[in-house]
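Running low. Got one?
___
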Amino acid sequence: MVRQLPLRPARRAGPREWQVDAGSSARSPAVVEGTVYVVSSRETMAVEAATGDCRWRCESPASSAPAVAEGLVFSASVHDVLANDCENGDIVGVYSFAF
């Protein structure tokens, strides 16, 4: 027996509050404690979720979506994993690997 669930109307998003130019190659963002972390092929950036104000930008090309842990933003390029400090964007580690 198949039970049908009542359908609810789709929730509409409200008006766009802000936008950031992250380039056409921006990956899916990570949102942690009110900060949106965005990675593109040219930079990593941190943006205040409430206002859209850019906290920092760091030239660090990557090809992956960001991951955030232990106060660091991790992203990967073709041969490296980059770690940026969440507070100021400084690159605090580059971990290289070979295939």
